[in-house]
Amino acid sequence: MSAGYRFGDVLPPTARLIIDDLVDAQRRREGVPPLRIEATDTDLTYELGTGGPAIRGTQADLLGWLTGRTTGATLTTSRPGPVPTAPYWI
Prior knowledge:
By secondary structure, the protein is an alpha+beta fold. Helix content is 28%, strand content 17%. It contains 2 helices and 4 strands. It has helices at residues 12-28, 59-66; strands at residues 35-39, 45-48, 54-57, 76-77. A 4-stranded mixed β-sheet has the order 2-1-3-4.
C-alpha cells in the first residue's frame, strides 16, 4: 500500500467488512474455484464451493491476497504447492 500504510494497519472490523464484500462478490460470479478461507487470528471463515484448498493466514494477510495486492506469500494452503492466485473479485 502507498504512504507506508499496510494491510495490518487496517482496523480488524474494517478488514472484515471488506473481506465480507469481496467474498460476496465472488459468490455472485460463475466459475470461481472452490476455496476455504480461514483467518488464524479471528473467527473469519468462508467456504466458496466445496472441495477446494483451505487458505490460512491473518485476516490482514488474507485481505491483501483477496484484493490482489499481495501474492499470498505469508499464507498457507492445505494442498501441496504455492497458494493459488486469489479469485478475481471485480
